[in-house]
Amino acid sequence: MLCAMPSESPDFRASDADREKIATLLRQAQREGRLTLDEFDERVAGAYRARTYGELTPLVDDLPDETGGTSATGPPRSPDSRTGRAALGIMSYAERIGPWRVPPRFTTFAFWGGGKIDLRDAFLDAAEVEIHCYAVMGGIEVVVSPGTRVEDRCTAIMGGVERDVRGAASHGESKVVITGLAFWGGVYIHSQEPDGKH
Q1: Where does the record place the DUF1707 domain (predicted)?
Q2: Cβ contact 118:164 at 8 Å
Q3: Residue 7, pLDDT score
Q4: CA dist., res. 62 & res. 67, Å (int)
Q5: Measured CA angle at 143 (ends 142, 146), to 5 deg
Q6: What is the pLDDT of residue 176?
């Protein structure tokens, strides 16, 4: 987990998850117009080369964190860990959107209901995360950013699984594995820009 690092410990080794979270913040900043494409490319390359917190910090020092505050004291905080490991929509609707923390395995279950798992602004706790989707007489939507590496392992019985992920995946990006079952229901996996365009 990437948290605000103490200023006196810039030599602490950064993990793959730390680098990935910084890259996510840079992608968000570029989408918001805070970074040019050239600046974004340069900083993302620097994030994946970084070995320590001291090398990661300058990449986001001049950017606000996910709460709108500045990140001058180091890489921004991860979202609250109380998001949990499951989202249940039983005759109701459950969703996870915006900046939220995704554990290595997350389950969503929709029974006579629906669910939406939006990973575009999420912080992944592992380089590879598994999203388990179980849609029983219901529907689940999984949204990722264009270019995200997605592996679909869902099974459908009298239901359907649709996958529409656009863009070539960048080397070093996190991988999202979608597993589960659509029984008299559906799972829709697709990519989408923040402005709603596919």
Answers
A1: 13-64
A2: no
A3: 38
A4: 14
A5: 140
A6: 94
Q: Which two tokens stand for residue 173?
A: 């990006």
Question: What's the pLDDT score for residue 80?
Answer: 37
Mean pLDDT of 176-185: 93
Nearest to 117 by CA among 137, 80, 77, 89: 89
Alpha carbon separation from 129 to 77, 103, 122, 166 (Å, rounded): 20, 7, 12, 19
**Burial class (CB within 10 angstroms; exposed 0-12, middle 13-18, buried 19+) of 6:** exposed
Q: Where are the beta strands (DSSP E) in the chain?
A: 86-90, 93-96, 101-102, 105-111, 114-118, 123-124, 128-136, 139-144, 149-157, 160-164, 175-183, 186-191
Residues, the chain: 198
CB-hemisphere CA count at 13 Å for 64?
7
Residues 181 and 135 sit within 8 Å (Cβ to Cβ): yes
Question: d(Cα 176, Cα 178) in Å, to the nearest integer?
Answer: 6
Q: How many helices (H) and strands (E) does the chain have?
A: 3, 12
pLDDT for 169 equals 62
Place of tokens 């995704």: 102
pLDDT category at 73 given cuts 50, 70, 90 is very low
Query: Residue 178: its pLDDT value, please?
Result: 95
As a whole number of angstroms, the distance between CA 23 and CA 170 comes to 12
